[in-house]
Amino acid sequence: MDLDLIRRLSIPAETKVVLCVLDGLGGLAGPRGRTELESANIRHLDRLAREGAVGLTIPVAPGVTPGSGPGHMALFGLDPLVYDVGRGVLEATGIDFPLGPHDLAARANFCTVDGDGLITDRRAGRVATEITAEICAQLREIKLPGVEVFVEPVREHRFVLVLRGEGLAEELSETDPQREGVTVPPVEALAPSAQRTADLANQFVAEARKLIGGRAQANHLTLRGWAHRPDLPQLPELWKLRAAACAIYPMYRGLARLVGMDTLDAGTNLESQFAALKQHWNDYDFFFVHYKYTDSAGEDGDFDRKVRAIEDFDACLPALLDLRPDVLLVGGDHSTPAVLASHSWHPVPVLMSGRTVRADAQHRFNETECAEGGLGIFPAKELLPQAFAHAGRLTKYGA
Question: pTM for the complete prediction?
Answer without folding.
Answer: 0.82
